[in-house]
Amino acid sequence: VFLPEILLATDAFKAGLKVLEPELMKTIDAGSFQEKPKVVIGTVKGDVHAVGKDMVATMLTVGGFDVKDVGADVDSEVFITAAEEFGAQSIGLSALMSTTMPSQKEVIDFLEAKGLRNKYKVIVGGGPVTPQWAEQIGADGFSKDAVEAVELAKSLLK
Questions:
Q1: Residue 142: helix, strand or coil by DSSP?
Q2: Contacts of the segment 152-156: beta carbons below 8 A, 24+ positions apart
Q3: Which one of 24, 47, 94, 153 is CB 3.0 to 4.6 Å from 100, fit for a cystine?
Q4: What is the per-residue pLDDT across 86-123, written as a single tens digit (0 to 9) for each?
Q5: Distance (Å, rounded) from C-alpha 30 to C-alpha 33?
Q6: Residue 113 DSSP one-character state
Q7: CA-to-CA distance for 4 and 24, rounded, in angstroms?
Q8: Distance of CA 22 to the CA centre of its chain
Q9: How far is CA 148 from CA 69, 83, 123, 144, 153, in A?
Q10: What is the DSSP string of 37-104?
Q11: At what angle do helices 51-62 and 146-157 cross, to 10 degrees?
Q12: What is the mean pLDDT of residues 121-133?
């Protein structure tokens, strides 16, 4: 697949999501949560890819979460500031390039330096990300796709 085709597929996904999202929102199931758990999600610094992150954000919303999407190419400090202001319990970090994976670790290191690491469950994902990487950087979990991310987030926040 060539880059222009990927960009066209991304645009098609976003256009389709605008049509489907209202219907998906009707199926929201908060499950066993009394109050919607809050998640901050974004693509880490240096990475502008957003399709996977957008899918995860949508599935989390449909799964009963209150989601704040901070976008793509996001600095570590922005994740933490957003999580603090939003009252999040979890932070989702996407990296779709192996060269940006260290930025996931940087966010976790930043949380530790601020004394906030135990306050948040950190989930990592993206094309090159593996369960071994998640363990190595001290993330609370890894998800290979949007459906698994919802189940993981629910289990971590129970």
A1: strand
A2: 152/123, 153/37, 153/39, 153/60, 153/63, 153/65, 153/90, 153/92, 153/121, 153/123, 154/31, 154/63, 156/90, 156/121, 156/123
A3: 47
A4: 999 999 999 999 999 999 999 999 999 999 999 999 99
A5: 6
A6: H
A7: 29
A8: 21
A9: 18, 22, 11, 7, 9
A10: -EEEEEEETT----HHHHHHHHHHHHTT-EEEEEEEEE-HHHHHHHHHHHT-SEEEEE--SGGGHHHH
A11: 50
A12: 97
To the question of pTM greater than 0.90 for the whole model, the response is no
Which amino acid, one-letter code, is at 90? S
What tokens appear for 45 in the block? 């610094």
For residues 85 and 74, is the Cβ–Cβ distance under 8 A?
Answer: no
Q: How far is the C-alpha of 9 from the C-alpha of 25, rounded, in Å?
A: 23
Q: List the structure tokens of 112.
A: 């530790």
pLDDT at 133 over 90: yes
Question: What DSSP string describes 3-49?
Answer: HHHHHHHHHHHHHHHHHHHHHHHTT---TT-SS--EEEEEEETT---
The reported pLDDT for the residue numbered 33 is 52
Note whether 96 and 47 are within 8 A (CB): yes
The tokens for 12 are 């098609």
